[in-house]
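Give me structure tokens for this 185-residue protein.
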Amino acid sequence: MAAIRINFTGRNLEITQALREYTEKKMAKIEKYLQEHRTSTAEVVLRTERGVHIAEVTMNLSGLILRGEGKTSDMYVSIDAAVDRIERQLNKHKTRINRRSQGPKLAEVAAPPVEEGERAVEKTEGPKIVRTKRFALKPMSPEEAALQMDLLGHDFFVFRDADSGEVSVLYRRRDGNFGLIEADY
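Here you go.
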């Protein structure tokens, strides 16, 4: 299992040994999600503002950045909330990866309707195109396309390269980086 390197910062608050140990203990429970990530660092900022205890946890997992925040009247409860948010994000990320790698489920493959009086004939079909989308290709740089892709929450983005005028596809790789497909006619 990967160990998490934790960097602590305190603002308007002295970080005691008890707070450090408590945070490290809570962060240890999310290490089960980090098997595939070699490097994982966490920035923990603990602060108080007008009597509210705020815990911010930002994790960098080989390019995947997660952020959780907790605001309560008790610093320990705030730490719990922030770490729980990180854990939910990691679980969601891991579930997405598993769904992609396993392909369509048996229930997702459409079965042909069976009419009364006919024998059911099993016929397996491949995936179907269930939606077609048309949109205008706007000229932009690959960096701008990456920003648009992140804003939309998509795994790929089709755009017209502003320099070459050609259609390109930007996609998110499994390692968290981007790939660029350029058309060659």
